[in-house]
Amino acid sequence: MTEVAAIGGYSDSERAAYAEIGAVFHDTLSDLLAAPEDERAGVRVVAYKHHQAFGAAEMDKLPALALIANYGVGYDAISIPDADARGVKVTNTPNVLNDDVADLAIAMLLMQARGLVQGDAWVRSGTWAKEGPPPLARKVSGSRAGVVGLGRIGREIADRLAALKLEVHYHSRSEKETPGWTYHADPVSLADAVDFLVVALVGGPETEHYVSREVIDALGPQGVIVNISRGSTIDEGAMLDALEQGGLAGAGLDVFQGEPKVDPRFLELDNVVLQPHVGSATHGTRADMGKLQRRNVTAFLAGDALETPVN
Amino acid sequence: MTEVAAIGGYSDSERAAYAEIGAVFHDTLSDLLAAPEDERAGVRVVAYKHHQAFGAAEMDKLPALALIANYGVGYDAISIPDADARGVKVTNTPNVLNDDVADLAIAMLLMQARGLVQGDAWVRSGTWAKEGPPPLARKVSGSRAGVVGLGRIGREIADRLAALKLEVHYHSRSEKETPGWTYHADPVSLADAVDFLVVALVGGPETEHYVSREVIDALGPQGVIVNISRGSTIDEGAMLDALEQGGLAGAGLDVFQGEPKVDPRFLELDNVVLQPHVGSATHGTRADMGKLQRRNVTAFLAGDALETPVN
Question: Where is the D-isomer specific 2-hydroxyacid dehydrogenase NAD-binding domain (chains A, B) (predicted)?
Fold first, then answer.
């Protein structure tokens, strides 16, 4: 009887590790749910590397399900209330990706402010030799940055912003112990106080459009948004309006509503840096995420404590 | 009689400030040297924003020359021995650009390692939606970085590398007081010890091809070079050979031999990030550089001490 189903696109070494514990593989959750009932009935553990919604309807087709081990820190595809109601445990892979995600936030901020995608094209197209230097860009040091959501990733970002000599502000549900960073009780006040706004919220319904039109307006024409969290955390339509009409200076975005499809309005903009959700997409970190996911699976199968439980 | 000649492309506000002290303007040093003898004879101060060689031959056509106030920290276009021999003082504009240059070094390092120019194109071309995520990239944190030349800019870069959780090594003429960074007495030893090599040397004949073929070989197939100093500091032919043949993993380059012309071999490479010498190219820093250059000019004219003398 198969106890473990591994869903999503795993690397060869990851597949080998799951094969060792007898896992079956499916590309998508739908594929598993379409499997014969006797296969589904035996599945106690789903190793999940997918963004398809995993709620009551899906869980009910897996009557023995007891653990969903998510690959990734963000588990917004999985309904925790539905899991709780069925006694299903959920784990994720926090921390091992913090540095990569924070590095990407910093890189996108610098790339946007300094015009570096354009700079590379300026050299490659021969424009430098033909027309001289590109327009002057924007200095980053000495500016004010605001972090929305001061969890583990938010802190890594704030540390790096401080090292780049930006004045650090932040907003989170409650004030936290920090090295002198300025707390704002609401996101509009934060946006109003800073030049660069970096969004490091968790995803899910509670943070949907948390960066609202009002927050975007408060950030204003000199403001730049950086988002490494989830596309859902920003009112994307309001952000696009502002980016198109001079209401914002620019954006650096790794995540989008409906990704991997991206609103074509983004593609017309030259004041945005766009990335294909690569916050944790390095060999080292993806390997570490896979190991942590598997440690949760094997701990569960052995009856040991889960390393990184969510619920 | 004109005492001040401003050479190069100044902004409107800079031109206005120089016009106030009666400066004449020329696009290039050659233009000034082609001026009538009575104009040249009166020039005591050259405010210099140009990369044309300024040595004995040029100085001898300006018999009253007493100050060359260079715009930029790098004054390798100006021959200091020739200036010394004629009692000509030289000033530059250090420090005000350190943060911008260090920020660019960090940005290019992250962009190269994480494939971010390619990432932006991956989204814009629709490849993400059509073909899925791009190949995995390289994790930066936990790696080893080496700084060649630990002057003021080198230190700013090293501080930022440490904040990104890289192990910091450096090479300079002598060991310096540092927060535990590892000193290497020669550049080959440094290159051998690190993954990322950031070049922050001064330009000029003494550092020509300081990053030699031997240094590049020591850095090796996993190594990445970042250069924000001068194109002359690296043996560019050796670096191109290595980049083309797998002898280096990549490079992030803001400066080139013979710039703004760039060796066309660079344009064929997808493992390099190329920038058109924009280390200090922000509105804020360029304004500060202009102010410092002018403070040196006005101090000289008033008989006061120079703020940032080179010789």
Answer: 106-279
